[in-house]
Amino acid sequence: MSAAQDTPGHGIVISLHIGQRVRHRDYKGQRVTGIVHGLSLDSDRVLEADIVLDAPIVVPARNEEDRALSIWRQHVPAHELAPFDDRDELIAEMLAALHGVVRVADRATVEFDAARTVIAKATGSAA
Q: How many helices (H) and strands (E) does the chain have?
């Protein structure tokens, strides 16, 4: 476990190792994942982790003369990291599948209503 935990009277407990997959929030609050590449203490004696990201954080260009900036590494306080797990990925996959089911159900409802209308016209009954 690499998540920082508050333990009353004992400070923060961190279990973190090089090569560990972790998750973090980028400057926009979006979830990013990566692998711990190194650990160090900063000048204030705060444990920091160097993370190689799975996908870059892209900072868009501000104007036509600039270009987008892709950030592939982060150097962050270790207590901001959490162990990687598949929860968010699984939730995203389930939501995508559910949206697909809803689209199919909506399409089927529209087609069913259209078929009912055609039957009503053909038989001269009310839809």
A: 1, 7
Question: Which spans in the chain are helix H?
Answer: 87-123
Residue, of 76 and 1, whose pLDDT is higher: 76
- Give the start-to-end residue ranges of the domains of the chain: 1-85, 86-127
Amino acid present at 81: L
**Alpha carbon 24 to chain centroid, angstroms:** 10
- In whole angstroms, what is the distance from residue 22 CA to residue 1 CA? 10
CATH number of the domain at 1-85, out of 2.30.30, 3.30.450, 2.60.40, 3.40.50?
2.30.30
pLDDT digits (tens, 9 = 90+) for 15-33: 888 999 998 877 777 788 8
- Torsions phi, psi of 60, nearest 5? -65, 155
